[in-house]
Design brief:
mainly alpha, three-stranded antiparallel sheet, 11 helices
Length: 237
């Protein structure tokens, strides 16, 4: 009888999958041993060997263990749907990698030209999108100010974001005390203190509309509200 089985260590050596992983696969009912003796030792047969390579192949194609388990142990699993979804995930990942490559290429170009670059403009390059129109003048202006002391107080910014969100959600007008506080903070601590140009403001506005990540609390909605109340406030001053 035992001549049909191999031990777990032998299966591990044949497949390159660790003993601990094989034990885990048994625990989650992904690959159960063909036979377990009275001492709890696991033994596997030719079917186990074949199934193991199906698992390895699917895992290499990006399928999660949960999906693999459903596929090899459940006839209801829709492999076609998985393929469609996985292809979409990979295409999205490729697009993201291409965008990252473009950003790095633009940064590499600037570093090679300037030999030195301030860490403060790195986030600028990280925000470049395929659709963004970034002029060389924008980059030039930023790299020329590598010794600029940027004014930014994290505690003050956090309080500003909370106030801005409150004003936006409650639709407070430009003459409300809390709204005016937000307007003055933005003007004094962001625009004036850091000498933000109209060109960079336009770029930031486009970015907030396309990507809400890495904007430190500023979203398309609350930024649009902020611009509106600033314009209203300026008209009555």
């Amino acid at each position: 009888m035992m001549e049909r089985y191999i031990k777990i260590k032998e299966l591990s050596e044949l497949t390159g999958v660790s003993v601990r992983t094989l034990q885990y696969y048994d625990e989650i009912n992904l690959l159960s041993p063909a036979y377990t003796n009275e001492y709890g030792h696991r033994f596997y047969d030719s079917n186990s060997f074949s199934k193991m390579f199906v698992i390895i192949s699917l895992k290499n194609m990006g399928m999660s263990l949960n999906n693999i388990n459903q596929y090899v142990n459940n006839n209801d699993f829709d492999i076609r749907l998985f393929i469609k979804e996985e292809k979409h995930r990979i295409e999205t990942a490729i697009t993201d990698l291409q965008l990252r490559l473009m950003r790095l290429s633009r940064l590499e170009e600037q570093v090679s030209e300037k030999q030195d670059i301030t860490p403060y403009i790195i986030p600028f390059f990280s925000q470049i999108t395929n659709e963004a129109s970034i002029s060389r003048l924008q980059i030039e202006n930023m790299t020329q100010n590598k010794d600029t002391n940027f004014t930014f107080n994290i505690k003050g910014w956090n309080a500003f974001i909370k106030d801005l969100d409150y004003c936006f959600k409650n639709k407070l007008s430009s003459n409300d005390e809390k709204t005016i506080k937000c307007i003055k903070y933005w003007k004094e601590n962001i625009l004036e203190a850091n000498q933000v140009s109209d060109e960079m403001i336009k770029f930031a506005e486009e970015y907030y509309q396309k990507d809400s990540t890495n904007t430190f609390g500023i979203t398309e909605e609350n930024y649009k509200y902020l611009v509106e109340v600033i314009n209203e406030y300026d008209k009555i001053q």
